[in-house]
Specification:
It is built from 4 helices and no strands. By secondary structure, the protein is mainly alpha-helical. It folds into 2 domains: about 50 residues, no CATH class; about 70 residues. The chain starts with a helix and ends in a 5-residue tail after the last helix. The mean pLDDT is about 75.
């Protein structure tokens, strides 16, 4: 058990040194006090590490077009599957009722879920 604990301590120490080296390379710490220097630009550091705060319009427009097409085709296709199965009595077999349930689920996903995904992509928040 002691060797496992010492390996964890060594791994943690290595991780701290790697992070410290990265922060020192970026110039966030003053060499004498090892405290953040007041002149450091934290927002510039974050922008370099995480990318731009907002996506450019040349990226948002194509993403919007693709998401709109996917949503429209998904809603149209799933609504038509539900309509065909509901209107035709001979199509109401157990297998087709199962497919209709899947189509309803997918339809709700397109109507509700894609809005949240699209907003996160446009706001440049990935998880």
């Amino acid at each position: 058990m002691a060797s496992g604990a010492s390996a964890e301590v060594a791994l943690a120490a290595a991780a701290v040194s790697v992070v410290a080296e990265g922060v020192e390379e970026e110039g966030l710490y003053n060499e004498t006090t090892a405290a953040p220097s007041p002149s450091s630009d934290l927002s510039a550091y974050i922008a370099r590490r995480l990318g731009p705060r907002h996506l450019p319009l040349s990226t948002i427009v194509p993403i919007s077009a693709v998401y709109s097409c996917i949503c429209a085709l998904g809603v149209l296709g799933n609504a038509s599957v539900c309509a065909v199965i509901c209107r035709n009595k001979y199509m109401q077999t157990p297998t087709n009722v199962y497919l209709a349930n899947l189509a309803v689920s997918d339809l709700l996903t397109h109507l509700v879920g894609e809005d949240f995904v699209f907003k996160n992509v446009v706001k440049h928040r990935y998880s």
